[in-house]
Amino acid sequence: MKEYVFRDPVHGNISVTDPTVFALIQSPEFQRLRRIRQLGTSFISYPGAEHTRFAHSLGVYHLMDRVLRHLTDRNIVQIDPEDCALACCAALLHDIGHGPFSHLFEKLTGQHHETWVERVIGSPETSIYQLLYSRNQHWPARITSIIAGTWDGPPFLKELISSQLDVDRMDYLLRDSRMCGVTYGQFDLDRLIQTITVHDGHVAMTDKGIHSAEEFLLARYFMYWNVYFHKATRAIETVLDKMLHRAVSLVRSGRRDEVGFLPPSMEPILAGRAMTLSEYLLLDETDVLYAIKRWTQAQDPILRDLSDRFINRRLFTGIRLDERLHRVLERQAEIIEAVKAAGFAEADYYYHIDKTSNLAYSYYVKPTEGGSPPIQVLVDWTKPPALREVTVMSDVLKSIATERVTRYVLFVPKEAADEVERILEN
User: Fold this and answer.
1) φ and ψ at 104, to 5 degrees?
2) H or E element, residue 204
3) Which end of the chain has fewer CB within 10 Å, C or N?
4) pTM higher than 0.70 for the full model?
5) Alpha carbon 86 to chain centroid distance?
6) Does 353 fall in a domain?
7) In this predicted model, what pLDDT tens digit does every residue of 72-123 receive, in sequence order?
8) Is residue 329 part of a domain?
9) More confident residue, 406 or 250
10) How far, in Å, CA of 334 to CA of 339, rounded?
């Protein structure tokens, strides 16, 4: 087949020679990912964070292809060519079900993006399904199983999609770091790939990869705190969340006229009606952003104010709580009254305690604290070679792998912030 090359700012040239892969990229469902940002509202904090799920998915496909070539070229493991193609398609399609502003919209639809991934790949009404089925009638179900983790083939193929050491994390750390203009997420990708191995069917690292693992996991740790949990990003997400819930409240209570403009693609969500797959695939961030822009002229003053705050970056003020969380809970009534006194009568839309450990992005967490299985290092100086958990091998990583850290921030309008601080310090 003809070679198609995508010029990527992170990986350079991404080559596609498989006709099925190129057809998947050209499908309407995959092209939709061009209109969904990888980092949601992070462009508020980092002006360059405009990259898309489309670019990220191409990057994950590219890295899956690289890792599989590494494993086969070095005779680390024998992989059936059909399984290689399946794994590369799974890497390409792993985010196909994401909606506008990703995890935030999952709250409104009541379904995680993983559910939509399965529906997009498994429904005969999509181009994705038709392309996979035309290649092999079993491909839609098998690719879905790799992404969902129920795959009954070689375990390392599904682990390369989702584990503590997967190509998804490799790409988004490098890509998010590059596009945000920071260095927190940088690590030696070439060296990391060179040290990946397979032991008893599972992904592991050679003992020469200890420093690569340290770099990779520290990159995740610093991106967690400095990018994914950035206070301005969380503040604007709070505004967006409150705004959408206000629109939902108005529509479902029969006050739709006060909303004003309502994109047809958003109507099912706001009305509380279950979305069909075709309706979901029509929705992207273009619809949401245009609606917000129009809502700055809405009749309802709360929806109008919250929309204006989003469009013009009038953020809520974030007040770090940490050890003061108990004070907020004890004096919540006073704080809400202070918000009302500042001019926000319906305080529920202007008051939020943010718990950042709820985010989808997390640093390395050991299995005892709810994380996925740890990274294993294959030590070759023992007889026979033995697996050891990576933090046993690295003193550097022990400090970030022992416990989960949670940050609490209280978000209120700037107009009420001083009085709320006074209440907390009294």
Assistant:
1) -65, -40
2) strand 202-206
3) C
4) yes
5) 23
6) no
7) 999 999 999 999 999 999 999 999 999 999 777 787 777 788 899 999 999 9
8) no
9) 250
10) 9
